[in-house]
Write a structure and sequence with these properties.
elongated, alpha+beta, 40% helix
Length: 326
Amino acid sequence: MAISSNQRVLEVILRMLKGETVTFDTWQHHYEDGKSKRTFQRDMRDITAALTETDFKYDLVRKQLRPQLLTETTQYSLVSEMTANRLTDAIAIGQIVIASRALSRTELTKLLTTLVQGLLPIDRDQFKQAIQMAQQSYLPLANHPVILERMAQILTAIAEHQRLTFDYQTGEIGDPVKKHVAQPETLFFDNAYFYVAMCREHQTKYLLYRLDRIVDITAVHAGDCHRKMNHYSLQDYRKQTYLLAMGDLTTFRFKCRINPQTALDRFPESKMIRQTGDNEVLIEARAYEDGAMLWLLGQGANIEVVSPTSFVQKFRANLVATLEQY
């Protein structure tokens, strides 16, 4: 049944609002084979004019496919102001997730698929091309369990103020799996792992658990509903260290002979005190001793810890113990 041009334009707009792309071929097939390209182009102009006149927050976007060939096709789609930069955002998120190494290959594929589904159809191929090399070279952490399902359980427990009984595998070689009872409050990602800040019953001190080391959740109990969500200060944690939260929290100084910004980025809110020589500066930072030491040792002779004395002695003892192994 023939329809008016106004009805046809309205239908095309509604189809594009649902995420469809329109070409002359698909338009002609849908609205009778006899329609001319001139009529199609007039419809596209009418849509553009209507969007402008109504100040509708969408733009009609043209994208040429195979422009170098005689069979060149132009796709039309509606893009809102909110989705205009979505492709760039999705590529950035995808690259960060791939670089994290935190997920199994199956989970990575699932998450990237979720990102793709949120894109306009005309952008999906470009997204796949942009992350293809990174995805193909993806190297997940060794022996990493599936964690998205476990994450969903933890997030539910946080939202519903539940206390969990769970089996936990510590990082020490040979240590048995131990049972813990605690109420999760915050979940966050840091240095290749997801962590859960939990509080044990009748205690105020928080303990950090690695999500991938929670072997099994064996029971769920009603927790303390009076605790405010996010009571744990993740901001303080970020300020104190981007490293492992190991050892005592301390303020220390070290001479730095690498690019100072590299060290300043590693220790949030650290500061450069003064230049102490050619290509050498003195930096003051605050972090957990053992976690900081792992990074400092990795810089070799480019780092020299100078204070406090207790940290210098601990640093020296670690170097001596390492040397004695060879």
